[in-house]
Structure formats: C-alpha cells, structure tokens
Specification:
Elements (H helix, E strand, L loop, with lengths): L3 H13 L18 H26 L3 H26 L4 H32 L10 H4 L1 H15 L5 H20 L2 H29 L17 H18 L1 H9 L10 H9 L6 H24 L30 H58 L5 H14 L11 H27 L3
Helix pairs in contact: 1-3, 2-3, 2-8, 3-4, 3-7, 3-8, 4-6, 4-7, 4-9, 6-8, 6-9, 7-8, 7-9, 8-12, 9-10
C-alpha cells in the first residue's frame, strides 16, 4: 500500500502534465518553463532527501521492525527520484519510468519477505530488539539464508532482484544530469551512491543483531517449534528474488516495458536505450563495486565512532562500546518525533479534552436538562387542562352556569370581570359548525372512495 501514492504521482505527472524533452542548458531556470519539468526537478530532490534520511534513521534503530519501516521510507525515495527524473526529462524520461515501476515491483517482494522473516523470529522470541535477540542463525538456519537473500535484493547486489531496478534508477538520474548539466543533479547522483552504501550498512547491522553472536538460553530451543509455513513462505520469497535477479529480462520485457505503451515517450529513445537494455555490463557492476567499497569504509568507521547509536531509544539493551571515540548523542527533542509528532499529539489531545468537556456539559445541562424541563412543563399544562375540563363537564351539561358561577366568584374576590365566549349562542353555533365539517368530510370521503373525485 505504501507504493500506491507513488504510482498515483507517476500517472499524474507523466499523463496529465506531460511535457516535451528538456532543452540542454547550464541554467536551471530553463527547466521551470514547463510544469512537468519543474515538478520533476522538485520531486528528484524530494526523493534524494527521503532516501538518504530514511537510510540514516534506519541505521539508528535497534528495533528490527523500525529498521524495516525506515528502510521502506528510504526505498520510496528511490522510487520518487525515478519518477522525478522521468518527469524532468519529458519525452526522454522512459528510463525513469521503467526504473520506478521495476523498483515498485521488486520492493513488494523483498520487503514483504523481510517483514515475514522478522515476524517469524518475533513469534518465537516475542522480542524485536536486536541487542537482546542475537544468535538466531543457530536456531533458524533456513530463515537465516532467506534473510540474506532478501537483504541482498534490497541492497542491489548483482544476481538479486534489486540490482536491476536500482541500475535503472541510477541510469535515470545520470541521464538527467547529462541532459541538463546541472551541478545539483550531479550531487543528487552522488547522494544516490552514498545512500546505496548506507542501505547495505543498516542490513549488516540488522543481520548481526538478529543472527550472529551467542544464542540466548531462552531462545535456544525455539527452532524445533517452528511451523512449516515459517520455512516455506520465506523460501518462496527468496526464490522469487533470486529468479528475478538472475533473469531480470523476464519481468523487464514481459511487464515493465509494455507499460510504456500508453505514454508519450520518444520511440527512438525507447528503442535505443530501453528495449534492448542489458543489465550485467561492466559499468553497472563497477558502480556496485564502488558502493561495496564505500560500505567497507562507512560501516567499520561508523561502528567505531558510534555513528549508528546517535538516536538509541531508551529501554533497549546497552550497546557495547567498541572504542573510546564516540559521537555525541542527538537529544530526543531534536528529532521528527520531538519536533513534530509529539507536539501535534499533545495539542490534539488537549483539543479533544476541551471539546469533550464543553460538549459533554452542553449535552448534559443544555439538551437533557432543558428537554426534561420542557416536558415537565408540557405535562403540567396538560394536567391543568385535564382538571379544567373535568371541572367543566363534571355533573352535567350546564357549562354556561358553571362559567357564570366562576364569574361571580371572581367578582366577589375582587379579581374583576372576565370576558368569556362560552355563551349558549356561541356553543350552539360551534356545535353546528363541527357537525357541518364532519358531514362534509364524510361526503368527500364517500365520493373519493367511489372514484368520482
């Protein structure tokens, strides 16, 4: 579901706001002449920022599911970058389109598999902190292998499914730079490479925390109780990841490139650079070797200076100190939770409490009490009317006489005369009028039933 929004952006930018290819220039302002190019440029940088900070925050986590959640944020950055490159290049943006669509498909496989694998560990350990679990390779050897396959897929290792889609995304950002020669897009491509290295780093950290090291005694005998589905389903995901990675053209030619048929991409560009694209070429493999080299530098260095524990949450097991050189911890308030989510939650809670208080008071004291008082008055009025009628009609039909007696009593008490319409003449007239209306109603009802009206 996380990729539905990206697909919507993809269709809107490439179908509703279609634009011609960019004009090569050294000035960034030329590309803001069209809505698609300008929005594509903005989207490229939204994707770059998202994928980098998503990977950085994934490195800071000690909870396995949080690591995967921030990893999903980072992978969405790759997809946004590819969509932005497609919109930025206009009719020459087919590379960005196929890269985004291919990575959407690949992400569905390796991330779903990773969540299932972590869930299988949680079912038996009821623990997600990688500093407390440890040693699951001895307990779940098959799950360890499938986890390595899925992690290699998301890292873009050649031979696994993520390699093909990340190669396409890398080609898209490189093409955007070569067409425009914008220095900003050159740095966007550099951040892409750095983020790919950070992706491998946080999966090395996650793998070490879950599977390597001594096994805790409480978890040592959990492997025998594993359900067969916990072995079969991760194995199926690993098989799909390997198949797509070893035979990327099957999905690429069978599903990804046919999806371009309804879009206004340049046919010459599509035929030359897209349709016959080969993935296992030396320049692409060399780009991944650069990523591996960066990983070999960043992970030991970051582990040595404490770069991966800047946001260690409270309550987790203490992280073993590797060296005396430690990076200063970032305070809790200097985070997205501290700066945005927690203040919004507190304000929302206060608004809800105030609304509940005044609404409850209004309902209790205004609606319920007011309605009760109204009905009480109505019932009292009906009771008084009933007593008045009983007083009038009790003991005969001398209603005028009763009115005369009441009038004399009022005069004797000094209340003054009270005019009344209840005379014999008026009562007889009212009786005749009521009899006439009843007769008229019966006549009309008779003719209506006969169908004469």
């Amino acid at each position: 579901m996380i990729k539905v929004g990206a697909y919507g952006i993809l269709r809107v930018l490439l179908e509703v706001f279609s634009a011609p290819g960019p004009i090569p220039s050294k000035s960034e302002h030329v590309f803001f002449a069209t809505a698609a190019s300008s929005s594509g440029y903005v989207l490229i940088w939204m994707g770059v920022i998202t994928m980098f900070f998503g990977a950085f925050l994934a490195l800071q986590q000690t909870m396995a599911k949080k690591t995967l959640a921030y990893s999903s944020v980072s992978q969405m950055g790759y997809i946004l970058l590819a969509i932005g490159a497609a919109a930025f290049l206009g009719t020459d943006g087919a590379m960005g389109f196929v890269g985004a669509l291919y990575h959407i498909i690949n992400h569905a496989f390796f991330k779903a598999g990773l969540f299932i694998m972590v869930g299988a560990i949680y079912i038996h350990t009821h623990e997600l902190d990688i500093n407390r679990i440890r040693g699951m390779a001895r307990v779940f050897p098959l799950l360890t292998v499938t986890f390595v396959v899925a992690a290699a897929g998301i890292a873009g290792v050649p031979g696994f499914n993520g390699y093909a889609s990340k190669t396409l995304v890398h080609h898209a950002i490189e093409k955007a730079y070569h067409y425009s020669h914008l220095p900003s897009l050159y740095w966007a491509e550099r951040i892409f490479v750095l983020t790919s290295a950070l992706t491998i780093c946080y999966f090395i950290k996650l793998f070490r925390g879950l599977f390597l090291g001594p096994t805790t005694e409480a978890f040592a005998d959990k492997g025998d109780k594993q359900h067969p589905a916990a072995r079969i389903i991760p194995g199926v995901f690993a098989a799909i990841i390997l198949f797509i990675g070893l035979f990327p053209q099957v999905l690429y030619q069978g599903l990804v490139t046919p999806a371009m048929s309804g879009l206004a991409f340049d046919p010459y560009n599509v035929g030359k650079y897209i349709t016959g694209l080969e993935f296992f070429t030396w320049p692409d493999i060399r780009a991944m070797l650069v990523v591996f080299g960066l990983t070999a530098v960043i992970y030991p260095l970051g582990n040595y200076i404490g770069l991966f524990q800047l946001l260690t949450p409270g309550g987790s097991a203490p992280v073993p100190q590797v060296s005396r050189i430690r990076m200063p911890s970032i305070p809790a308030w200097l985070s997205v939770e501290g700066l945005l989510y927690e203040p919004v939650a507190r304000i929302g809670l206060r608004v809800c409490n105030l609304t509940h208080t005044y609404l409850d008071a209004g309902v209790n004291y205004t609606l319920f009490t007011g309605t009760a008082n109204l009905f009480h008055r109505v019932i009292r009025a009906i009771g008084n009317l009933e007593n008045l009628l009983l007083d009038f009609y009790e003991g005969g039909s001398d209603i005028p006489g009763k009115f005369s007696a009441r009038s004399e009593a009022r005069n004797r008490s000094g209340a003054g005369p009270r005019s009344s319409l209840w005379s014999n003449r008026n009562i007889n007239t009212a009786a005749l009028l009521v009899a006439f209306l009843i007769t008229l109603f019966l006549v009309v009802f008779f003719f209506f039933r006969r169908g004469m009206l």
